[in-house]
Automatic annotation (TrEMBL), chains B, D:
SUPFAM superfamilies named in the record: PurS-like (SSF82697)
Protein name: Phosphoribosylformylglycinamidine synthase subunit PurS
Top-rank lineage group of the source organism: Bacteria
Binding partners and assembly: Part of the FGAM synthase complex composed of 1 PurL, 1 PurQ and 2 PurS subunits.
BP GO annotations: 'de novo' IMP biosynthetic process
InterPro entries: PurS (IPR003850), PurS-like_sf (IPR036604)
UniProtKB/TrEMBL annotation, chain C:
Record's signal peptide: none
Name of the protein this chain belongs to: Phosphoribosylformylglycinamidine synthase subunit PurQ
Catalytic activity, EC: 6.3.5.3, 3.5.1.2
This protein's UniProt keywords: ATP-binding, Cytoplasm, Glutamine amidotransferase, Hydrolase, Ligase, Nucleotide-binding, Purine biosynthesis
Active site feature: C86 (nucleophile), H203, E205
Ranges annotated as spanning the membrane: none
SMART domains for this protein: GATase_5
Pathway where it operates: Purine metabolism; IMP biosynthesis via de novo pathway; 5-amino-1-(5-phospho-D-ribosyl)imidazole from N(2)-formyl-N(1)-(5-phospho-D-ribosyl)glycinamide: step 1/2
GO BP terms in the entry: 'de novo' IMP biosynthetic process
GO cellular component, one term: cytoplasm
Subcellular location: Cytoplasm
Gene Ontology MF term list: ATP binding; glutaminase activity; phosphoribosylformylglycinamidine synthase activity
Encoding gene per record: purQ
């Protein structure tokens, strides 16, 4: 193992204070593998260190909430013994690097978050932001992202029923790709991550592990050879076909009584999944890395623990069920391996070739993850414009024409026609309306789903913009006849170490909280994406809201189309 | 002048197609196939007749369109 | 009418067609896993839509080599009706039960939308509930639906009445704008010579329920029910 | 032993991918491209070490799965 120099620490994204805490927790210098594990566990992405303080202020409870934030996805009761399981997640940076695969694997990741909990995914949505249409890269990014979302969702056979797209120059170097999945599960059979039972087997299923998306690692160590660049693509490639098999296999296994805990391997793969499972169950875990199914020869423990290969799951089974579970996985042509077992030590012990290659305490690492109260300044109020002071356009017909042709208002048909929005034969309201309506198979009910945010409002006045996004979501659901039940959010912002950006974040949260409280419309899951900046210029603050509502009688919904000649047209509201 | 461009996935990049073909071959009882990788072959008819010119021309096309250099490599072969 | 729906790894419209078959016929179809080597006695075999084997290599290619397909080919030879929808159509051309191939859509994009089809003839097991020349609205959702065959083959298919459906305008006009994928002669579906095997790209099972916005697709299942019960 | 299989469309068979590339190249201002055809390159690692055996083995795979001989041709190249 190579030496842990200050450079190596810095390349792992840990600052001095954080590294001091690592030393305290370990009681010794960590080796490279252990440092890598700290690095991913304490990354912004996994630890929410800048945002946690504020996320906690969002309302998360209501009588119909079965599971709020903290699990893989939020769960709400939708009646007739069923639950809707949903979440939104960003894949912004990868999609900028490689739009097709970045967007595709974003869809794959959010699908796994949902079926991990025992829910069959029934709808996908997305919230996309691109730079100015004139910008040299925009066309390439748009077509790649749309093709990637379609390529993955169409193949797994989950309809993409809605979404939103905005264009603004602030996204020129930082596009946003937020993907949302909604699934259905029996309300009393929700699967969670917590690992339980000393000695119980830890199981790996799905695709093999390759050297995909290993962070910071390329530079971090002299032990990687010269062609490491070539060997270590930072882009993960999605395999929707395997994901489809994984969905079916996991749901089949979930019908048995064999699973104690299950967790998908998302960002930070094996590391975060095993830590989370052990930490939630208050257990220790021992992994035998020789057993991890690998796609390439000679993979190091560091690579195995930090790989972001897609389409993989980790589970803890009740003992004695291994053969049955293996049978199901093999029927679906998936890898299955017992890679370890639970212990009572509260530590994670990693072995390879008989040696202990890593040994870390679980709770201190998970619980002592940094949490920051970052300085922030309120966004200065802008002057209010009075509509009366603006010039009245001469030819309103021409203005209307211009508006309808503008990038942010024109038809999105060219996008959603590339998505299979009808597979599963339950899409009652296709894209193009206020919210998608998807029937709850086997009942008379339907779910209404929409994604919303207007970033230019958020930049002008974060609190009102945040509130408006929630209110718009609510309106879109009620407009099709649904009772809005809960939301998921995806908070996309710039660098939180800048007080103005942190101020936007705090403002948007404040507005969302106010609106959620006023509407009894709680937040049950979400995701945060920070550092969306290029050369010090941040994106518009973009708190994307994904809303879910229920329609008790699916026969009674409304659409946006005028259906009858001579019908009255009414305007309601202020 | 004709050019053939071979576009292949970089080492270590997952190749779902290759993997599926591998499976299918073994299901069809073809034994002894250890790994399968799928790439593209693009054949171009060019009006250019100078090999050097043609090669640099085609390389530019690869960089710009034919290959996704984030995950793919390409090689160029010229004929006649 | 007892139907078997073949399920390949990556099939994803298997349940959709199961629901429609059950609703129309009142009989629960049998779902058959691709690794099965035998099939019970059925009146109809359906190859559903989806992305069998991820559509890798060529869509339908790997599925066409699966164990169960040997039995399907045998049954088709014995006259058992076979319906291939979308990916099922691709499997049928790859297995040689239907002529031609389905290439990548001409604009290379996946397309999901309602299209209008002209029912070329009502003289088949699959279309007896429609009128000849009737225009029906049915959705497509595919990436590889661009039907190709040599000119001679196309002439032969036309001569034999093997063209089942063509993409047309809502008023029945046959023009290139009505063609969502570049198919030769706007072909959306073809029969084998005996008209016992049908493959089509559009998804009749997706518009067979008024709540989903239309019922034009139901006619195909009603035709089969009338012919096979 | 490694084998490379080139699968190309037969003459006269429509090639939407090749056409689209042709269009895209001209939209990108690459001139002098007269025709583009897209095919597949499939690389196989075989445990077989006898070239003759390997070739006939791979030919069988092509006939059975790798190529659709109604519309495609294939050629096989062996290495090491
Ligand atoms: N990226 C996308 N994917 C799928 N559907 C989309 C996408 N963008 C927009 N749509 C659909 O187009 C319609 C109009 O979108 P939008 O203009 O954002 O709606 P709103 O009226 O809520 O502002 C909606 O039905 C939406 O679901």
């Amino acid at each position: 193992m190579s030496e842990i120099t200050p450079e190596v620490v810095a390349e792992h994204g840990l600052n001095e204070t954080e590294y001091q805490r690592v030393l305290e927790i370990m009681g010794r210098e960590p080796n490279l593998l252990e440092l890598g594990i700290f690095s991913v566990m304490w990354s912004e992405h996994c630890s929410y260190k800048s945002s946690k303080k504020w996320l906690k202020t969002l309302p998360t409870e209501a009588p119909h909430v079965i599971e709020g934030p903290g699990e893989n996805a939020g769960v709400i009761d939708i009646g007739e013994g069923l639950a809707a399981v949903f979440k939104m997640e960003s894949h912004n940076h990868p999609s900028f690097i490689e739009p097709y695969q970045g967007a595709a694997t974003g869809v794959g990741g959010i699908l796994r978050d949902v079926f991990t909990m025992g829910a069959r995914p029934i709808a996908n949505l997305n919230a996309l932001r691109f730079g100015s249409p004139e910008h040299a890269k925009t066309r390439h990014l748009v077509s790649g992202v749309v093709a990637g979302i379609g390529g993955y969702g169409n193949c797994v056979g989950v309809p993409t029923v809605g979404g939103e797209v905005n264009f603004d120059p602030s996204y020129n170097g930082n596009i946003l790709v937020n993907a949302m999945t909604v699934g259905l599960a029996p309300a009393d059979r929700i699967f969670k991550a917590a690992a339980q039972g000393v000695g119980n087997p830890v199981i790996y299923v799905g695709s093999k592990t390759g050297r995909d998306g290993i962070h910071g690692a390329t530079m971090a160590s002299a032990e990687f050879d010269d062609d490491s660049d070539e060997k270590r693509p930072t882009v993960q490639v999605g395999d929707p076909f395997t994901e489809k098999l994984l969905i079916e296999a996991c749901l089949e296994l979930m019908e048995t009584d064999a699973i104690i805990g299950i967790q998908d391997m998302g960002a930070a793969g094996l590391t975060s999944s095993s830590f989370e499972m052990a930490s939630k169950g208050g257990m220790g875990v021992e992994l035998n890395l020789d057993q991890v199914p690998c796609r390439e020869d000679g993979m190091t423990p560091y690579e195995m623990m930090l790989s972001e290969s897609q389409e993989r799951m980790l589970m803890v089974l009740k003992p004695g069920n291994e053969d049955m579970a293996r049978g199901i996985m093999e029927k679906w042509d998936l890898d299955f391996a017992v890679i370890g077992s639970l212990t009572e030590t509260g530590r994670m012990v990693l072995r390879m070739h008989g040696d202990v290659v890593g040994d870390l305490p679980i709770d201190p690492l998970a619980e002592a993850s940094p949490e920051y109260d970052r300085p922030w300044v309120p966004t200065p109020a802008r002057e209010e414009l009075d509509a009366k002071d603006l010039p009245v356009p001469g030819d309103t017909g021409k203005v209307l024409y211009q508006l309808m042709g503008s990038p942010n208002l024109c038809s999105r048909r060219w996008i959603w026609e590339q998505y299979d929005h009808m597979v599963m034969a339950d899409t009652q309201a296709r894209p193009g309306g206020d919210a998608a309506v998807v029937r709850v198979h086997g009942t008379g009910r339907a779910l209404a789903i929409s994604t919303d945010c207007t970033p230019r409002y958020c930049v002008a006045d974060p609190a009102r913009g945040g509130a408006q996004a929630v209110a718009e979501s609510w309106r879109n659901l009620t407009a099709v006849g649904a009772t809005p039940l809960a939301i998921t959010d995806n908070m996309n912002f710039g660098n939180p170490e800048r007080p103005e950006i942190m101020g936007q974040f705090v403002g948007c949260i404040e507005g969302m909280r106010a609106a959620c409280d006023a509407l009894a419309y709680p937040v049950v899951s979400g995701n945060v994406s920070l550092y969306n900046e290029t050369n010090g210029a941040a994106i518009l603050p973009t708190p994307a809201i994904g809303g879910v509502g229920v329609i008790e009688d699916a026969a009674k919904t409304a659409g946006i189309a005028f259906t009858e000649e001579g019908a009255d047209i009414l305007l309601i509201g202020e | 002048m004709k050019a053939r461009v071979y576009v292949t996935l970089k080492n270590g990049v997952l190749d779902p197609q290759g993997k599926a073909i591998e499976h299918a071959l073994s299901a069809l009882d073809f034994q002894g196939v250890e790994q399968v990788r799928q790439g593209k072959l693009i054949e171009l008819d060019l009006s250019e007749s100078d090999p050097e010119q043609a090669r640099s021309h085609v390389a530019a096309m690869c960089e710009k369109l034919l290959a996704n250099t984030v995950i793919e490599n390409y090689t160029i072969e010229l004929a006649d | 009418m007892k139907a078997a729906v073949i399920v390949f790894p990556g099939s994803n419209c298997d349940r959709d067609v199961q629901v429609t078959l059950r609703d129309v016929s009142g009989v629960e179809p049998v779902m058959v896993w691709h690794k099965e080597s035998s099939l019970e006695d059925v009146d109809l075999i359906v190859l559903p839509g989806g992305f069998s084997y991820g559509d890798y290599l060529r869509s339908g290619a790997m599925a066409s080599k699966s164990l169960v397909m040997r039995e399907v080919v045998k049954r088709a030879g014995a006259g058992v009706p076979v319906l291939g929808i979308c990916n099922g159509f691709q499997v049928l051309t790859e297995s040689g039960l239907l002529p031609g191939v389905l290439m990548r859509n001409a604009n290379l994009k996946f397309v999901c939308k309602d299209v209008h089809l002209k029912v070329e003839s009502s003289q088949s097991l699959f279309t007896s509930a429609y009128e000849a020349g009737q225009v029906v609205r049915i959705p497509v959702a595919h990436h590889d639906g661009n039907y190709f065959a040599g000119e001679d083959e196309l002439d032969r298919l036309e001569g034999n009445g093997q063209i089942a459906f063509r993409y047309v305008q809502p008023d029945g006009a046959l023009d290139p704008d009505a063609n969502p994928n570049g198919s030769a002669r706007n072909i959306a579906g073809v029969y084998n010579e005996r008209k016992t095997v049908l493959g089509l790209m559009p998804h009749p099972e997706r518009l067979a329920d008024p709540q989903l916005g239309g019922t034009d697709g139901k006619g195909m299942f009603q035709s089969l029910l009338e012919s096979l019960s």
